[in-house]
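So, could you explain the following?
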Amino acid sequence: MVNAELRWAARCLGRTAGYGEYLDVALSGRGRRCERELSVINHVDRRTLELRLLGPMEACVDGVSVSVSGPRRRALLIRLALSANEVVSKDRLIDDLWGEDPPPTAAKSLHVQVSQLRDVLRVADGLSAKDDEVLVTRQSGYMLRLEPDSLDVSRFEQSCAAAREALEQHAHARAGAICRAALSLWRGPALDDVSQESFAVAEIARLEELRLAVIEMRIEADLAQSGHVEIISELETLVARHPLREHLWWLLALALYRSGRQAEAVRACTRLRQILREELGFDPNLEITTLEHRIIVQDPTLELRATGTDDSVDMNLSVASSQPRAVLGYRTNLPRIPTPFIGGERLLDEIAEQLRISNVVTLTGTGGVGKTRAAIEFGHRHAAEFDRGVFFVDLAPVSNTGADMTRSRRRCRLSRSASSPCSTLSWTGSAIAVSCW
């Protein structure tokens, strides 16, 4: 009996161009064996319906296209597929297919459309009237029964999660292969047949956002494997199409810097700042401003370094698009200061030197001399050294030191038992302490 993993892999190989590369990586060569076992599996399972919604809608059985005629019937199939294995009420279907002002005959028309669609799917799937239906009727509505890997949208979502997990494990070659296989599922705009229907608008936006996130992860994986020169032109096109997407600008600036184009990398950060100020009235996020500073000072940790944890070169500053987590993706609540820090470089050097020999450094002085400003500047510049984050805690209003400190630490999610050091800037009004543990 063929196991479930081989069954799933063989279906992918039989349906999707590009998945072979992913399976070779993810299954360590077992994808080829799956391909040889495909004929055995087809004798075990009955024919399986597959729906492709990432482009013009296609219905296939064992790779053979099934004709679903009529725009309303196609819209019905797409709507049910988006809620696969869930009952969709008749009222909901009428609203989605006919709009807010349906005709009096909408309920009868829906019944006819479902009956005709069921006949098409039954014949295509090799079923008789006595067999289990793919499109079933329930008391409150209708349900389309699909296996998890029978819908390209589901496979794309699964691949997105797998790619993010691979990036978190610094398995960049595997992440890149998964992303490419996932993107190969797209044959055009998502839900192209129903792009003007109200029920599809939010889903189209969600899928397009997910697609862009996969593109970012693929680029990040390429950056970790010395692919910075080849992807610069692609990134320039992407930032032109999505000028407010800061992570794309971050990737572009890093790629430019690693290609020896420092001035252009700084110019990319400056250009983003101008766009955000003109369009939205605020500055780029901390991720961008920190990268800009590190590019200006030519921080050596921006360069690639080999770690031996993958068959590729690991990035010293990997950030997943949804949850930045390493060198530039640190957690922080430090306030942003719009003005440049001038004239305090020696003080910052002294703080850094003192923290090498002590866990706590206290800055004292009269009000207004710049203690808080210097400490926050130090936190921004050195945040990359603390994997668990850098946090600002205002202790000036504290009345019960022990209880309030406990609550402050809990809010910042700090832990003295953490394996990685943290940094905290605690301000009491007359002094500020920079502490590390």
